[in-house]
Amino acid sequence: MTTAFITHGDYLLHEMGADHPERPERIGAITQYLASSELGDQLKWLAAQPVPEGLLEKIHPVEYISWLDSLQPKQGLVYADPDTALNPHTMRAARLAAGAVTMATQMVLEGKLTNAFCAVRPPGHHAERSIAMGFCFFNNIALGVEQALSHRAIERVAILDFDVHHCNGTVDIFKDRPEVLVCSTFQHPFFPHRYYDIQRDNIINSPLPAGTTGNEFRQAVERDWLPALHCHQPQMIFVSAGFDAHQADPLGQLLLDESDYRWVTQLIVNAASCFASGRIVSVLEGGYDLQALAHSVYTHLEGLVEG
Ligand SMILES: [Zn+2]
After folding, report:
1. 175: which DSSP letter?
2. How far is the CA of 156 from the centre of ligand 1 (A)?
3. 151 classed as catalytic
4. What CATH fold (topology level) applies to the domain 3-306?
């Protein structure tokens, strides 16, 4: 049983302005809290490698990738959308964020790891095939999924997303790929206001009103995710692990706490051992209260290690 914790120092070089909530300190808060704990010693700490360019081009058009590269400034910030800015280090961080996920996927498939958590930034689940938005440039989890599906033994996968925001980018990319089940719980109505009402058998959307409690979140997951997982029988499970549905989060208005992240992690671990030989790759998405983020990631990792 090996759980990896994959991150990279260069994630801290990407920043989008002093007051931006998606800030380098998010990664520092997670790693410092883990490093000071016994749990930190039980993890295999790995440095991310950049995503292979050929794989990147299977998800994002070459024109889009070149456009982002050309946008990157030599100094200061350039905005890809009103929330999403590039500084001189952004594209390297984005390639390393996607690369953490593809590296984790490869190692899990080779049996070198049981599961992995990728503490990355920029996040990915709002990035559509050709649109950067919501702090995201490349869809990190989609790249891991593409990598897994290129493996002979993997024909069906699931993406489980418990970030407070709907994963419009992931849905955009996989809406016509029935081998990829996408289950998302999210606050609604809320950003990003796209794809939340799409009708596809492989897209399971669970909108939750502001003020939804942990118990109500758990009911929605049991009602919507479990039957879909049983039906789909995924051979590998990917997790878009955003922790901005925490009650302390400044962006979302859901009322989850660490116990809910413990519960949902256990449910995911159980599903993975049932269908997927335990194979899980989990990827950081949102989470903007530094203490709640560090504590929630810790709880999530405890569940992965015990799994
Ligand atoms: Zn989010």
Report:
1. T
2. 26
3. no
4. Arginase; Chain A (3.40.800)
